[in-house]
Request: fold
Amino acid sequence: MAANKRKIQEINAGSMADISFLLLIFFLVATTMNTDSGLARMLPPMPDENTEQKPSDIKERNLMKVFISQNNNIMVSTQEAENQVIDIRQLKEKAKEFVLNPFDLETLPEKKVKEIELADGAKWSYPVSEGVISLQNDRGTSYEAYIMVQNELTRAFNEVRNELSKEKYGMEFTDLGEAARKSITDAVPLKISEAEPRNVGGK
Amino acid sequence: MAVIKKKGSKETPAISTSSLPDVIFMLIFFFMVSTQMREQELLVRYRLPAATEIQKLEKKSLVSFIHIGPPSLAMQAKFGNAPKVQLNDSYRTTKDILDFIASERDKLNEADRNAMTVCIKADNQTRMGIITDVKQELRRANALKISYAASKTAGY
Reply:
């Protein structure tokens, strides 16, 4: 009876708030919140030094060369027109035209019909463009200009993908599920090759 | 007979602070989940180039960073203004990238090694020469998945 009446003394929790404040401040100071974002790319693997390099067997009509000079001017050559100097604003349309080849011109890339597997197991035949955009820069090109060009090229591909996605699924590309997204990326592969630079502008 | 004590009833009772720790703990958990540890001290200054088509880097733990830019203000007296490459906590040359990638790769477990991404954070005024050298070294190190860090912009 007497033991029941005696209460265990409560632990004083008044300083708990201070302790947790301290922890909070520690985490505020020691961590960062910024989320990193950027343009994702795949580099080509290094060619084996032992094997002889054979010249690339890409047909001329399938290649669009984009060169950024040391003064950050952009020059585009396709089979249609050699060495055109263009503005950054024209680049996206140019790239889109190259990827799509809407009128099946002789001077723009050929298309190969490929069977793309859909999520439900069905096959979807789509003429996949054979075109490759080759990006070349000078050692003196500024990084900003390079990223701007990379961005425009990505934008061209993204817009082509988006249009195709709307046509096929009636949805924006970014709203698609993973399987549907893969089918679109298979239909419009991001083919940007980063060639080795020329050395005119020096470091 | 129940006697109601009237002595204390006129004073307003103190506001209970017993739930304060819970509230703060909640805040802590929020910060722990939404942030990550500051990993390294920056020795270079950079302003990222702007782009519209950027993607978020998916898994933070699989990303290694290479910083390129002119030395930070504190280091300028010693190292001048020429762009430098920072790996981990010190200035390095492009030759050290092979070792850097190898050590970063060792930190990951076997299954994740193929998904390793290298994020290049370079100042927008850098010349492509140094970045090309870095890219060539990355190719040699077989770290082919890269991301050019850029900040979001509405377009131009």
